[in-house]
Design goal:
- The strands form 5 sheets. This protein has a 7-stranded mixed sheet. Strands 7-6-5-2-9-10 form a 6-stranded antiparallel sheet, with no helix packed on it.
- About 30% of the residues lie in helices and about 25% in strands.
- β11 and β12 form a beta hairpin.
- The chain has 11 helices and 20 strands.
- It starts with a helix and ends with a helix.
- α2 crosses α4 and α3 crosses α9.
- It is of the alpha+beta class.
- Among the domains are: about 150 residues, Tumour Suppressor Smad4, CATH 2.60.200; about 80 residues, no CATH class.
């Protein structure tokens, strides 16, 4: 058994080190679009185009490749708008390390984005699946800029890189059945372009090395984050019905004066009442709860509207009315109800605007990370003791 554990540890560390030092990720991009057509335009460095059987052409300055899905679920390739043929798969491979190319979905139309490294495109259920085969460091830099924007302190970018790396390794095969590891949507991690405008992000990714966060059992943590907690983070169980020890609610004073800390919204009283009564059978005629239908105070974060006995989750109200958060009060205002809310997002884990403010006040990334994930530990991917008992990567290794 001891020998088996040692072999497991060695294999897992070996696989993870390979990933950390050059193995490409498979990231599904433009997943908000049912892409029918996409164009790849030269931007920086040439790309070779390969079809099912081999090399087709190279994308050089002022040249492009146009791809579209066919009725028989194949990929039609055009090179400089001249038809080449229909294939099951097209690959674009950079001819020099860290080239990048402009990519735009043209049906339906998206904004143009720029991505690094290689690509694979295939048809699935009448749409194109566009996969960016990207180096881990390039991917993380793109995620950090997509999630955090530009103009922030280096230590903030470091903590964002840390939690983004943790998420990457924990959910490495989330979309394996679709032909890629993770996608570019926020339910994975936003990845809307290569890192373009903030060179300090590359420094942050490099200086956090192979660091990730684990819990007391040696498992990678759920490194959730959101824009603004409104002064109090949320219990994980309020959002996902799952209690997580390092994701307990606590007061956070760092974000309360930032731009997304407060919000308001008016909703017609009739619309509010119809939702509560028709969907949740709100007891409108009850002597206790009836008069409170348009009045609700939430000094501390709660999970349910008025009372748990009514079974009306605040998260459902947020989704139905498109609210910024579940942290709000309600009061009558003429024929409307006025919602005065705090925060933006689910409120669980790291508060981005709070973390930005902490970095501004010269807290380092380790202090920021532990503040928002108390009880978690920061460890290296190369720490053999960590991986010896980590089941997360054992499962991933079995799926390689």
């Amino acid at each position: 058994m001891k020998g088996t554990k040692y072999i497991w540890s060695f294999l897992i560390v070996f696989v993870c080190c390979c990933a950390a030092y050059g193995q490409q990720l498979r990231i599904g991009i433009f997943r908000d679009y049912a892409a029918k057509k996409v164009i790849f335009d030269y931007d920086k460095g040439s790309y070779s185009i390969y079809n099912d059987t081999g090399f087709v052409a190279a994308i050089l300055p002022n040249e492009s490749a146009q791809l579209s899905v066919t009725p028989d679920n194949l990929v039609e390739l055009k090179y400089n708008y001249q038809t080449v043929g229909k294939f099951s798969k097209i690959r674009l491979v950079e001819n020099q390390l860290n080239n990048n190319i402009s990519v735009q979905v043209t049906e339906p139309k998206s904004k143009t984005r720029k991505y690094q490294n290689d690509f694979e495109i295939f048809a699935d259920k009448g749409s194109l699946t566009i996969v960016n085969l990207v180096d881990i460091s390039n991917y993380l830099a793109g995620v950090v800029e997509s999630e955090g924007g530009g103009g922030k302190e280096l230590e903030y970018y470091k903590v964002q890189a840390l939690i983004s790396r943790t998420y990457l390794y924990k959910y490495f095969n989330k979309h394996a059945e679709e032909g890629f590891s993770l996608c570019d949507r926020v339910h994975c991690q936003a990845y809307h372009s290569m890192m373009r405008f903030t060179p300090s992000i590359e420094q942050a990714v490099k200086e956090t090395g192979n660091l990730v966060m684990k819990d007391d059992h040696g498992h990678l943590i759920d490194a959730y984050f959101h824009a603004n907690c409104g002064g109090q983070t949320s219990e994980a169980q309020y959002v996902w019905n799952n209690n997580v020890p390092y994701l307990n609610s606590f007061r956070d004073t760092f974000c309360i004066y930032t731009k997304q800390a407060v919000w308001e919204k008016r909703i017609p009283q009739q619309e509010w009442a119809d939702f509560l009564v028709k969907k949740y059978n709100y007891p409108i005629n009850d002597t206790v709860f009836g008069p409170l239908i348009f009045t609700f105070n939430q000094p501390d974060r709660m999970a349910f509207y008025q009372s748990a006995v009514l079974g009306i989750p605040l998260r459902d109200i947020r989704i139905n009315f498109g609210l910024r958060s579940t942290f709000f009060n309600v009061s009558p205002d003429g024929t409307d109800v006025l919602l005065t809310g705090r925060g933006y997002g689910h409120g669980v884990g790291l508060c981005q605007e709070g973390a930005m403010k902490m970095a501004y006040y010269q807290y380092n990334f380790r202090q920021i990370a532990i503040y928002y994930f108390p009880g978690a530990q920061i460890v290296s991917l190369e720490d053999e003791d960590f991986f010896r008992y980590t089941s997360d990567f054992k499962e991933q290794l079995e799926n390689f």
